Amino acid sequence: MSVFGFPLPVILGQLMLGLVNGSFYALLSLGLAVIFGLLGVVNFAHGAFYMLGAYAAWIALDQFGINYWFALLLAPLVVGVLGVIIERLFLRHLYRLDPLYGLLLTFGIALIAEGLLRYQFGASGQSYPVPAALSGAVNLGFMVLPIYRGWVIAASLAVCFVTWFLIERTRLGATLRAATENARLVQAFGINVPVLVMCTYGGGVALAALAGVLSAPVIQVNPLMGSSLVIVVFAVVVIGGMGSILGTIVSGLALGLIEGFTKVIYPEASNIVVFVIMAIVLIWRPAGLFGKE
Asked: How far is Cα 37 from Cα 40, in angstroms, rounded to an integer?
């Protein structure tokens, strides 16, 4: 059986690989959407925090013998604390200014992080082993899927759902949204808004670091791994709707599938299809598919 002249197993295999990429897009974009949606900060350092998460896992294993499962908890915590420090020292002074200042600051932070790690570890990639419990592969009939990639899909979807639920369906999420709309009113009820803002930025950064840990066994850990993804991540957030948590998750998964399908029918366009879709969405609906005008 064939579709558009291509064997169905080939298309299904590429769609599955596209779903893996889409899971990374969704999880990495999620932290960016949380930070922009709740704080209004265009966090251009998001790719750097993703890279720092991967390096934190690699250093933990290489220098201290800390395994993958502990790194899944430790690396996002460490990078999240770093994000909190950056927010307290720099970003909190820019909230009332034009968003361009925040963009320039976070872009500078990304360049500094990349430069320091390139100086310390070089530009070549570092390999991170797949944990023994997730090694091997499973035959799906149309392809042999590595178990680790299946774990990436499941873990990413679980984290995305929990984050969406916390922000959209809990009292904490309602308080966070209220604090971004009217900080003085929320503070009048005895809620420490600066601490909420600080924790929100740290949480968004921790999500990027978690995506970095998940990606470490799949790709080479290198200083430029974040900069190569951050543009695609911004495109995902724009398509889903700036600040829309659900839109970011849906668009990240959908764009991964579309990218995988494009690699079958027209491989040359697979690197630009995301940006073509972004241009179409911006012309048709400037606020994004799930964004508010």
From this structure: 6
Question: Around 156, how many Cα atoms within 13 Å sit in the side-chain half-sphere?
Answer: 31
Question: Measuring CA to CA, which residue among 72, 36, 85 is closest to residue 211?
Answer: 72
Collapsing DSSP states into helix, strand and coil, what is residue 227? helix
Domain region containing 163: 2-284
Q: Answer yes or no: is 74 within a domain.
A: yes
Instruction: Measure CA 167 to chain center.
Output: 17
pLDDT for residue 4: 59
Cα dihedral sign for 158, 202, 101, 98?
positive
Half-sphere exposure of 2 (CA within 13 A, CB side): 6
Number of domains within the chain: 1
Q: What is the pLDDT of residues 120-179, one digit of tens each?
A: 998 888 999 999 999 999 988 878 889 999 999 999 999 999 999 998 889 888 888 887
Total Cβ atoms within 10 A of residue 231: 12
pTM of the model: 0.93
Q: For the chain, what is the mean pLDDT?
A: 89
Is 291 part of any domain? Answer: no
